[in-house]
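Let us work through a complete example step by step.
Step 1: write down the sequence.
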Amino acid sequence: MVTVSNKAGHKKKFDFAELPVAVPMQRSLAMAFAARSGGWKSHKSARTNWINIGVFARFLSELESPPDDLDGLSVATMQSWRDRHISTNSGKSKLSTVRKVLLQDPRLTAGPAAEELARRIPRPTPSQRSYEEDERDRVALTAQRQFRSAWLRIGENTHLLSRWRAGELVEGSREWRIGKVLNDVARTGDVPRTVTPGGQGHVTNRKLLGGAGPEKTWGRLFLTGGELTALAVVLTDRFGWNLSLYSRMPVPATTPSAGETATVTYQVQVEKRRAGGGRWFTTENITDSGADSPGRLITRALEATAHARTLADSLAPGTDLLMVARSHQLEREHVDLDRPAPLGPLFFGVSDDMGKLWARNHGLGGSPFQRARRTTVTNEGRPMQHTQGTHESVYVLPDRRVQRASRDVFEAGAREALEQARAAVFGGEVVDQSDPEHQETATADCADEESSPWPAPEGGCGADFLLCLACANAHVHPGHHPRLAHLHQQIQSLRSGMDESMFRDRWSDHLLRLEDLRDKVGPAAWTAALARVTQDDRTIVQLLVKRDLAP
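Step 2: predict the structure and record it as tokens.
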């Protein structure tokens, strides 16, 4: 029997005598499980490991000769276990989970079976994806509408209750009588009920309230489970928070905004469940500065849960959790000890089952929380309650929507890089001799100035002579080599006396084209050409460098 404590100190027992393996194997698995459990912060983690160990135990029990203990595991057995599960994501997860438990036994850290056990398990193929824009809009708008409706309903009834408590209503009037019922709801969590001889309770003021459903009775001051789920969906869509956070989120503290009277800043404690060493919470500051500001959602969440939080504090002084709603029926037995226990008719947080039920009721498919969080994180483009490595490897790189959206970015980047590369290479032809049909320029011979990429308004070519080397019409023969090699030297000499950014802007492309041309001519021929530089070459190069030579 292994007892696992979660972060809240609640204990859960796992009975290894239930496993269909020999007693020595049960004991060894229990000891390995207990050793591994020290790193778990929740019963959910413990139960996941327990289920997978159970799958492994059933696999062993189906062998022709099941081993009595872990030291009886053979290479063939471990290969068969691996082959059974390696082809699926869930199978890879089982392999990884069971391996971490088995390696707690020192007998499995050496030997042939240990080598097989330690073989690399490929990462699961990413299956989660963020919402497409229309999907995200549908989920977010559905949640926003449902929560806003609840917030307006609670706000309207809160105003009526405040007037009743202030004595502003005419005693005996319909509003006064509803206010009196609301006072009972705020104090007890329910409307007055009349118990029939059969033991069933009926709403005493059904006609006055307009019905017996939650929205007409206790829902006037409390959120329902579906409405609390809607609020959590909106919060996840806005802030990228994990579903598990909502079960233990403290009421945000408020801090004064310097020089401001119309704004309020909330300090929200965000739980990081997988962190250890006391680093389980981080603080996010969220400001309410108007209707469209992020903090306005926090303000409305506080308003919608105000009566439930007050009732919770009266039932258990010191209770200070934000996400609280009124249950339709009392919980028979509190089994999810990773979440706070209910208080009377109140419960805290949102479970994955609640997320699935909410989505099903609205025709939205599965629970929205993982996909909504992934959508927000990828849209924000930065880590949110996780590391940079997790952000890139878990959220961004595997996401199909990001991959698809990135194609245009990659294509644009590749095209830009190609254009930059083309701008930095010699664009013409290297030939062995001059052609009398070509027109000579200061840097090359031109095959056809009328087809210039830089036409002049009056016709012909309007390009700087340095741009000749970027043109497809340029032909460079050995007679050009001395002048161009000398030009290369002179441009290089400008770098030492000029600001680097200015040099890059003015000369970098020209220098790179000359260096590309040097590689095409050959370094030896290029160097030898320097010995043939004439005075005319020097004069022309000087004018080119000073940009005094016009086409």
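Step 3: interpret the result. The first strand starts at residue 2 and ends at 5.
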